[in-house]
Amino acid sequence: MKIKILLADDHQIVLKGISFFLAMQPDFELVGEAHNGKEAVEKAGELQPDIVLMDLNMPIMDGIEASALIKEQHPHIKVLVLTSFADQSHIVPALQTGAIGYMLKDVEPDQLAEAIRSAYKGNIQLHPDISRALLSRTEPEPRPEPVIQHSSKDKSLEALTPRELEVLELLTKGLSNKDIAQTLIVAEKTVKTHVSSILSKLDLSDRTQAALFAAPLFQNKGQMA
């Protein structure tokens, strides 16, 4: 039986990237997408997913209010927060709604998949940064919600150098900087420099966005080869 997932996020690039990533998992079924909190609540009732993957900063209704309504109306549906906010002013209210977990968008794709599987089984899921913040009762530096730049700049792989393409392709497979460095036989510091350049050229905020954005492009490239 596949895990039925409803994805709620208002960033189109992130939404498409995560949707593609979820569709690649053999035990996941993406049953729907929502572009704001109100739509997430409505589709949760209509589609009855097992998991709602919930962004927090969304128009019309934010993810915290949407999570609370979903848990109130459908207690059996599990809400797993996926956001860029790491401050306790967001963490605590989100968890108080009954969300089963709180993940940050810089999580590695394979770790996100495992978090979804574990949450489906009823296990609480917390990003390592969130666990440390709650245990120490200190707030990590707030992370602003990623801003997707809509410019005339072509977000294509043509903007990248051959080495950056190699790094990006390995990044889409969920490899860490250390693993990429070992694969390409270069220094880890060099990989970090390449990743920073890749994010800048693609106008993306973090490695997860880059991986999710590029994954379908590499798959299409492989299919055309």
Q: Which shape, going by the Cα principal axes?
A: elongated
Return the CATH class of the largest domain: Alpha Beta
Give the helices and strands as they follow along the chain: EHEHEHEHEHEHHHHH
CATH topology of the largest domain: Rossmann fold
Sequence stretches where pLDDT stays below 50 over 5 or more residues: 145-155
Beta content:
5-15%
Termini, distance in Å? 33 Å
Average pLDDT figure: 82
Q: Note the main sheet.
A: 6 strands, parallel
Contiguous helical run count: 10
Q: Total strand count, please? A: 6
Tell me roughly what share of residues is in helical segments: 40-55%
Across the major sheet, the strand order is 2-1-3-4-5-6
Please tell me the total number of domains.
2
What is the CATH architecture descriptor of the largest domain?
3-Layer(aba) Sandwich
CATH superfamily of the largest domain: Response regulator
User: Could you tell me the radius of gyration in angstroms?
Assistant: 18 Å
Would you give an account of this structure?
With 225 residues, the chain is α/β, with parallel strands linked by helices. It has two domains: 3-136, Rossmann fold (3-Layer(aba) Sandwich), CATH 3.40.50.2300; 157-224, Winged helix-like DNA-binding domain superfamily/Winged helix DNA-binding domain (Arc Repressor Mutant, subunit A, Orthogonal Bundle). The protein has ten helices and six strands, in the order E-H-E-H-E-H-E-H-E-H-E-H-H-H-H-H. A six-stranded parallel sheet has the order 2-1-3-4-5-6, with helices on both faces. Strand 4 (78-83), helix 4 (88-96) and strand 5 form a beta-alpha-beta unit. Helix 1 (12-24) crosses helix 10. Keywords: DNA-binding, Phosphoprotein, Transcription, Transcription regulation. Residues 153-218 form the HTH luxR-type domain. This is DNA-binding response regulator.
